[in-house]
């Protein structure tokens, strides 16, 4: 991505921070990759705000009080996510586009034609949001180093390391649904 293309393309690009919540600190999720995720998200949020671009926070919300995403546990955002977003979307499914208020309607009303999707988890809510954004006609940037995920267990019991899971997502998204980039490239 050239600097000229990047700066022109990012003018109407919203930063969508997906589920950067304390719930993901729960040991139930196991081993994760990319300890730089949260600092990279914070850098992106600060840059977007400095440049007057829209910032969206997405929060996963479960009604079950016992859920790690329930009202008594992990709905709060991580400490690295500071300040108020231009829009707060609450969802109970994978894609931020199925949350409330309507992310798609809000983006269109502001003339946004691109999104940069970051947060947790690379292979679930970030991937799903990126794919849906592409299907809705947005240009999608996916700063892989501003996402993280966890080890996964495949059918048959094989453990797939978190870094392998993230690389699979990058390979699947890039050039088809999104432009996979680094935080530095977006900055």
User: How many beta strands in the DSSP annotation?
Assistant: 9
The gyration radius over C-alpha positions equals 16 Å
Which range best describes the helical content: under 10%, 10-25%, 25-40%, 40-55%, 55-70% or over 70%? 25-40%
Oligomer classification: single chain
Top-tier CATH class: Alpha Beta
CA-to-CA gap between the ends?
A: 12 Å
Looking at this structure, what is the CATH superfamily?
Answer: Isochorismatase-like
Tally the structural domains: 1
Average pLDDT, rounded to a whole number, is: 92
> With helices defined by DSSP (H or I, 4 residues minimum), what is the helix count?
6
Low-confidence stretches: none
Short description:
The protein has 187 residues and is of the alpha/beta class. The protein has a single domain (3-186), classed as Isochorismatase-like (Rossmann fold), CATH 3.40.50.
Structural features:
two-stranded antiparallel sheet, about 20% strand, Rossmann fold, about 190 residues, alpha/beta, about 30% helix
Question: What does this protein look like?
Answer:
- This protein is an alpha/beta fold and 187 residues long.
- Strands 1, 2, 3, 4, 5, 6 and 9 form a seven-stranded parallel beta sheet that branches.
- It has a single domain (3-186), classed as Isochorismatase-like (Rossmann fold, 3-Layer(aba) Sandwich).
- The protein has six helices and nine strands; from the N terminus they run αβαββαβαββββαβα.
- α4 (122-135) runs parallel beside α5.
- Helix content is 31%, strand content 20%.
- It starts with a helix and ends with a helix.
- The mean pLDDT is 92.
- The chain is globular.
